[in-house]
Give the backbone structure.
Amino acid sequence: MLLHIELPENVTIEHSGGDGWTILHGDALGILPHFRPGSFDALITDPPYASGGWTQTEKNRTTNQKYSSMRSEKALPDFIGDQKDQRSWTRWMAEWLFEAWKACKDGAPVCLFIDWRQLPCITDALQWAGWIWRGVVVWDKLTCRPQKGRFRQQSEFVVWGSKGSMPVNRPVGCLPGVFHYANPQNRTHVTEKPLPLMRDLVKICEPNGRILDPFCGSGTTVLAARLEGYEAAGIEASDAYFKLGSDRVRFALDAHEKAGEPAG
Ligand SMILES: C[S@@+](CC[C@H](N)C(=O)[O-])C[C@H]1O[C@@H](n2cnc3c(N)ncnc32)[C@H](O)[C@@H]1O
């Protein structure tokens, strides 16, 4: 179950998983260097944006305060790693992106979720880490708060690229440049991405490939990958989301299997 990971003696990593998927519990920067080089066919992830405000005081609020409008009695657990300032965040992004670059095969695609505030910094970090930046896909969230006298902040983005060249004859079809999906209604995670969106996005990976998500939260990428016939490894540092994500993926895949629906 521990996909392609080599650990020094006496080091163990808590993990969960099943057929073709694993979620590792811990810090991405600590775990990524242990993957054998070239283990993954794609990096698809939604890192903490460290966004949600103009000032550091605004950014230092909890993730629920920044990103959720749920009433406190219904609030989901906060997640970690979202309070860095711009420079620290960009440096940290470049560091883990470099470790992930080593863990991926030549030609592997990379997809990174981000908002408008961090869009310039994430494209710097991606390239510093050695990836080729190839474009930006728009995620149209369909609904959002209107702002008088301003444009709605209706979109987030997927910055994408590859590890070196990306031949056009890969066995992958033409993919859209804009996705239209509303935020999930019954969320497990404060900033959970829509499962149908993730099922579309993972198709950038070659069929039967292995996908890495080092910030897997409630496991949406891992679940989408399995449902589309890929293997997947996630990493999650928060205790609460390691458990919630692992349970969610296991439950959903069991239900899928019981319904007799084949993956992919
Ligand atoms: C934006 S959320 C991902 C949400 C996910 N896409 C989903 O649909 O549920 C980012 C996640 O990264 C986790 N995280 C933050 N810093 C981390 C680190 N250094 N290593 C591993 N996970 C981390 C957070 O706890 C959070 O759950």
Summary: Residues 27-28, 46, 48, 79-81, 189, 191-193, 215, 217-218, 220, 235-238, 241 surround S-adenosylmethionine (CB under 6 Å).
